[in-house]
Amino acid sequence: MTTKWFGERVQRVEDDRLLRGHGRFTDDIDDGALESCLVRSPYAHARITSIDVAAARALPGVVAVYVATDLPFGNIDLPILIPHPNLTHGRTQRCLASEIVRYAGEAVAFVVAESRNIAEDAADLVRVDYEPLPVVITPEAGAAAKHLVHDDVPGNVAAEMLQEVGDVDRAMAAAPHRKKLHFRFERGAACPMEGRAVWARWSESERKLTVYDSTQSPTSIRGGLAVLFGLPESNVEVIAPDVGGGFGPKIMLFYPDELLVPFAAMQLGRPVKWTEDRQEHFTAVNQERGQVHEVEVGFDEMGRLLALSDDFIHDAGAYTPYGIILPIITAAQVPGPYRVPNYRVRFRAVYTNATPTSPYRGAGRPHACFAMERTLDSIAKELGIDRAEIRRRNFIQPDQFPYHLGVAWQDGNSVVYDSGNYPALLEKALAMLGPRPAGDHIGMGLGVYVEGTGVGPYEGAHVQVLVSGKVVAATGIPSQGQAHATVFAQVVADELGVAVADVEVTGGDTRRFPWGVGTFASRGAVTAGNAMAVSARMVADKAKLIAGEQLEVDPADLELVGGRVRVKGSPDRGISLAALSVLANPVRYAFGGGTEAATQFASKRRPGPPLADGEQPGLEATGYYSPPGSTWASGCHAAYVRVDPMTFRLEVLKYVVVHDCGRLINPFVVEGQIEGGVAQGIGGAFYERLAYDAEGQLRNASFMEYLIPYSTEVPEIEIGHIETPSPLNPLGVKGAGEAGVIPVGAVIGSAIEDALGVPITEMPLSPLKLFELSRPQPGRL
Amino acid sequence: MKPPRFEYHAPSTVEEACELLGSLEDAKVLAGGQSLIPLLNFRLAQPAHLVDINRLSGLDAIYERDGGVAVQALARQAAVEDSEVAARVCPLLTAAVRLVAHRVIRNRGTVCGSIAHADPASELPAVLLALGGHVIGRSARGDRIIDAGDLFKGVFETALEADELLVEAWFPASSGAFAIVEESRRHGDFALAGAVRALGRLALFGVAPTPVLADAANPGRGLQPSGDLEATPEFRLHLVRVLTERVFAA
Amino acid sequence: MKVNGSLHAPPLDPRRLLSDHLRHDLGLTGTHVGCEHGVCGCCTVLLDGEPVRSCLMLAVQAEGHEVSTVEGLAAAGAPLHPVQQAFHECQGLQCGFCTPGFLMSVVGLLAQHPDPTPEQVEEGIAGNLCRCTGYASIRRAVHRAAELSGK
Questions:
Q1: DSSP string spanning C40-109?
Q2: Hey, is the C-beta of C65 within 8 angstroms of any chain B C-beta?
Q3: Cβ-Cβ contacts under 8 Å, B1 against chain A
Q4: C82-150 falls under which CATH superfamily?
Q5: ipTM of model
Q6: Which of A62, A544, B4, C43 has CA 20 to 30 A from A731's CA?
């Protein structure tokens, strides 16, 4: 099969609608829906002694106010999404709190009204009496456990996990050199431009629940709603329409509104919608990035790693709905692209009185990368070795794949790197970076990472050629800007020999495709992309079978080109896919569109029944791809920065990325993903810090004070690719979604240390932080 | 985040506006809205009455008088930014307005509104102070000139009475050496600290409850800046020294 | 008030924000709401040809003015406006949520500076947040838009 579209910089098919302002984001849908808002706890930890909603209920324009006791599911703990044997003390919240709140922003009441304005007026009238309780906010405070977040969780430890490869104690003791490092990461937020939103309608006559949700996993929402409301899954439809960015927090489920909005719709007999505002987004939507690492490393005089131990605290927040996936990923990713013959990692996931944490682009990998990269830089400095050279000495080599790490991965398997070429990444990045610019206060930074992508369990796709000849395809996973409709159309178009413009892809709509997992963890292209290929190949095979019967030719002598199935070497002999679609469905009654050809007196008769045993009507197929394990992407970033020695303002002079995500379906789309990821990385390195005070109040819950970079803060970047195809899947692709963000903190930190001469061991930085680090202070390490 | 309820008034003459401000309890003036409407959306401000002055005609002029530039209440910051009169007579004002937020905000925001709002981190009050300008407050009782040195009382607080409308700000010509520098986190953000040099004076903003005049030789003397998420008092004092140096080197 | 050339009555409720009025009263959902405090720019429309934040205006304030939204850039079925075309060619959008705000800002920019310098381009897009693209493709789109508009 010749590939025509794979690897091409095909322009996006999504754009026309979006550019014209005809996108359909969840809040765009009104359809007579009532509006709503949530009343949230202003306290980070408090006992609720009373809730009075009488005044709120009485406000004209208010239709209903719900508290926990109004909900049939009010005393059910929301599910732990990913149970794990080490998560011995997992805890989740209830839909609406009624006894205790454990983070500022936890939902307490739900107001439904004719408009959001009125709902907010009513929310102001809800009287909740709180008895404040002591608060622990930082991961260190959580671990010190002077106060408990959950009375029945000793030491605030939700989970503890220890893994060891080799014998760290022996190797460390025997190592010629040792050092200890401490790294600290503050919380950050994903902040997609579109906040979360839910719209729901209940049809009593059809007993059908229809929900639009700005989610990264409609299939999971559907499953959960069916269970919760006791409905057959086939009576629940969940659609992620256009979604304005996800970046992780929208894979988290179930947010209280995802249950409350459908519930209210069922109760009130009218559609109900809820759209968060930006301020509540900051505390209501899951956050990430809070960790503290104690690293000890043993190395030789050449800078080769002999033993590494990392003991870290992971800030889980007040609840653990997402289990311990984040610290598992961090633990698995610390070794990165390097040989670490003796590795021990222990983590404790610790409760704090802050918003729960769950993946945000990078998902535990930025911390791991920072810890390893800064450790190597520190060793390099101590031994006087060039930072690139020390990496060369420690890389896993191209002939060492598959490489078994020996630690657990987030899919339940053990980490095995399938393919890669780390030395090539480094050399190319250095070549692209070029010589250091002249001038003062300039620093160079370097960071290499690996990324486990394409986790399972699976994704599926349905591909069908319509009688018009047009191809429609569907998968369960939604897009939040990654151009799935374009990329998957390319895969299908190659298999079927049609144009991308002739393939229409739908995702994230359980009415079109009800099975699947979701869009997260850099897995869309690997899982759904391969499922599209599997399914489209099945369609191609069927088309050849039918055409072979009609043309009396062996299907092996047929090829799909230009919308037809034709004989290899005799291109004039062929049948259009449209005609084959007609023939694939033997009909009694023609209904136009060429279907006369498939009626019993018109078509070629074959022995046996019109539909053979096991055969299905239609030129369509449903296929699945289930990865045997993650496929490992990698990359190297390098940069020059200048730091103003007086104001500590950061200027990125040059930023280069060399990226390996295996074979690229659409380089244009991949570059967009990398550029966006780097921008978020820059934000996370120097601008974005969720600033909680000692009382657990988020001090910067607005775009004025939570500093997402504008274009003026984000440099141009140069991107280079290398390709080490994945041996694990038919398309040879690896994930690309998170790559841009993973090493940025390490690179910027390394560059700033090089420029200023102060050790950088934390993220994010800021002019204030650099000012404080630069001043000589007695008693500071 | 939706605004709370308020009574909305849209007078068409200045007299009407002053009468409303004189008779209404708990009223706020809505001019550009770029500072007020966020406060309404956050429900941090919940005035009983909103007096929208955008319908007042003949109050948007930028003109030369008395050796300076007069900017009336409804002159948008963008209009001042583009004004040939301002560029000629008071180029410091032109330079300062360019630092206010982003152009899209300046398309609605007004110079007088920014001065009346008196955010300690904003540029225009400090420029008015450095130049030794004044404002004209109008009420049913007549017009009152308030010199810059008497105008700024505290954080978001001016000497304007509740029934007074700030109808004009007057900026003396910025003849001689002048400069304005500020340090902010992102382009267009509020300044962590800033310095204005004009007519032999130095004014600082972002480091005190109001803009303050300072001595170039010891700009931090007597200052007790506040701390916030992006700057401690020490860092602000450090920036004051750095920016003072830069404003005189410019 | 005029919206994309058609006359409309302002809402009765003075506290109705222009952004909500456009989206939910007039059904013009192309203008998006990202923050309601004037920082993100998703709500940017043109007021008498100049970019403004529709979340920072009361709808009643638009009375007597002309509002232009993204839906007005190209008629249904008609080719894309040069700015829209440029964003498409340069992949200046991914999720599309911030895009209408950028488009209107760029239309406003090019009306003032039809052949903008890189500095003017930077100033022109400096007030809009995008979380998907990292801005590089948007910068390219603005330069391309100037080219296409010049034809």
A1: S-TTEEEETTEEEEGGGSBGGGGTTSEEE-GGGSS-TTSPPPHHHHHHHHTT--SS-SSHHHHHHHHHHH
A2: no
A3: 120, 277-279
A4: [2Fe-2S]-binding domain (1.10.150.120)
A5: 0.98
A6: A544
